[in-house]
Amino acid sequence: MVDEARARELAIAAFDAQQVVLGGARELNDGWFFPSVTKGPDLFTGVIVNKRTGRCLRVRAHTPLDKDPTLYDRGYQYDGYDLVVLGIGDLDQTVRIVMALHVVTVDTYYKNDRVYRVGRPLTEAEVRERLSKLPCIFSGGFIFHIDELEHAREAGWMSFKVFEYRGKD
């Protein structure tokens, strides 16, 4: 178990030590949150250190975690996610939420003696098709939309789990 002092050391190491000043620790169930002041571009407003693993998640400015670090305790502990939709209470609202995530699919094609892989957003029809077969997985960097996912869960529009996204499409 990572205590506050060790968490502070890990948090400082997550940044260039010359460019960060950490504030007081806020204890979460799963981690330690340290607000930060950085010199230079203000991309990050803090860091959360996992109590069990010591893994650091730098908190990006203007994200739901920036406003509510307790989202970390609800599983939002990564930069990229696999969202596994397990059930749907309101299909139209679920589709709206998934479309707001800007999920990308990769089209692969052959032309001029080359193989091309081109990312493009999923269409509404493709989202509906995927959601017709549960469980259904969407992957991406949803860090700016986790509050919308939590709202969807609380409203009963869909049930889901989130996991760390580790691969390439």
Quick description:
The chain has 5 helices and 10 strands; from the N terminus they run αβββββαβαββαβαβ. With 169 residues, it is of the alpha+beta class. A hairpin with a 2-residue loop joins strand 7 and strand 8.
Largest sheet geometry = 5 strands, antiparallel
H/E topology pattern: HEEEEEHEHEEHEHE
- Write down how many β-strands occur, each being a DSSP E stretch of 2 or more residues: 10
The figure for the number of domains is: 2
The proportion of residues forming helix, as a percent range, comes to 10-25%
Query: What share of the residues does DSSP label as strand, in percent?
Result: 35-45%
List keywords for this structure.
2 domains, alpha+beta, three-stranded antiparallel beta sheet, 169 residues
Question: Could you explain the architecture of this structure?
Answer:
With 169 residues, this protein is an alpha+beta fold. It has two domains: 71 residues, no CATH class; 84 residues, no CATH class. It is built from five helices and ten strands. Strands 1, 2, 3, 4 and 5 form a five-stranded antiparallel sheet that branches. The protein has a three-stranded antiparallel sheet with strand order 9-6-10. The chain has a two-stranded antiparallel sheet with strand order 7-8. Strand 4 and strand 5 form a beta hairpin. Helix 3 packs across helix 4. The mean pLDDT is 92.
List the helices and strands and how they pair.
Blueprint lengths: L3 H10 L6 E3 L3 E2 L3 E8 L5 E7 L5 E5 L3 H4 L13 E8 L2 H10 L3 E8 L2 E8 L2 H8 L4 E5 L5 H10 L2 E7 L5
Antiparallel strand pairs: 1-3, 2-3, 3-4, 4-5, 6-9, 6-10, 7-8
Helix pairs in contact: 3-4
